[in-house]
Amino acid sequence: MRVAVIGAGVIGASVTYHLAKRGVEVHCFDRATTAGSGTTSVGFATATAYRRFPQAYFALNQAGIAEHVKLGGQWWHQSGTIGWSDDESFGGYLDLLAEWGCDVERRSVHAAHRELERSVDFPRSGVVARLPREGWIDAVAFTQWMLSVDGASVRLGTAVEKLDKVDSGTFGVLSSDGTRTEVDAVVNAAGSGADDVAVMAGARRFLGAPRRSLIIHVDIDHDLKHIVRAPDISIRPDGPGRIVMRSDQVDRKLPDRSGAPEPTLVDDLLARAHRVIPTLSAGTIHLAHVVDARCPRDDLPSAGALTAVPGYYEAVASAGVTLAPLFGRLLAEQMTNGTVDALLKPFSPDRFSVQ
């Protein structure tokens, strides 16, 4: 079997890795000259099922976390997540997590400060949840490791310019280096560029409107151990000398246009972080970056074969870092033996068959 994987981000790298491990002749293309240099390199990069709905999507993310735990590696940091909310329904949400099979520990705010994170300014009362199996990932290192797998042809700096349909399930891949590679299947793992690949393959567009997120990396010596999910800010460690942060509330204020982040929004995000971890005010900004990303238009993954276009598969998701190792394994199984795992069935590309 010969397969072209279009996109060398974390999902494309995982599909490449698992196909090569099964003896498939796999060619991975990406216009970028460095593996994982796109959204993979600047995203929040956590493996989490926190606030993931509906239940099928939660289960998919839980399985993605388990896949990271199984793989291990120096890029995987099983820090656990701690979170709290000022919403009265939070206790019911934790009950739901437990019902869905998630490991959830509950602490009073005083116990959380004493036992979990002494630098965090927890609320005066309420409950703090800890999800011990979650973690964060050095996504670039993970991506580069997967792409180093024996048996894969990784063609960085090489864009796919055209897909010729040779016959049912066979494609000719014309790339920017002037070569043509004939393959039995194409995997669209192009992330925000996935619509362009879909059209080239004779499929339909399926991405939603662009989503923008302000991510700030701060250099500071710290003792933060967990991913922190406060009501209006998310913060995680990024090794001993750096912190990464983002906020849904700040993201909603971002202008539609691309470009450098507005200073007022940078200040807003930093102020939210300082209220939760006051010692972060001593840090210096390493990188403040607005990530422009697109995902399937219902905000859920598209993973698997598109029935209308034989030989064409999709592997696109907003939670790419969480799901990458699972997607790679399950898609490789589907492509080589025809087995569609029950976890993937709700996220079939066929649901977007009509524009």
UniProtKB/TrEMBL annotation:
It comes from the Bacteria. One of its GO terms (molecular function) is oxidoreductase activity. Residues 2-333 form the FAD dependent oxidoreductase domain. Keywords: Oxidoreductase. Pfam families: DAO (PF01266). One of its GO terms (cellular component) is cytoplasm. This is Glycine/D-amino acid oxidase-like deaminating enzyme. It comes from Actinocrispum wychmicini.
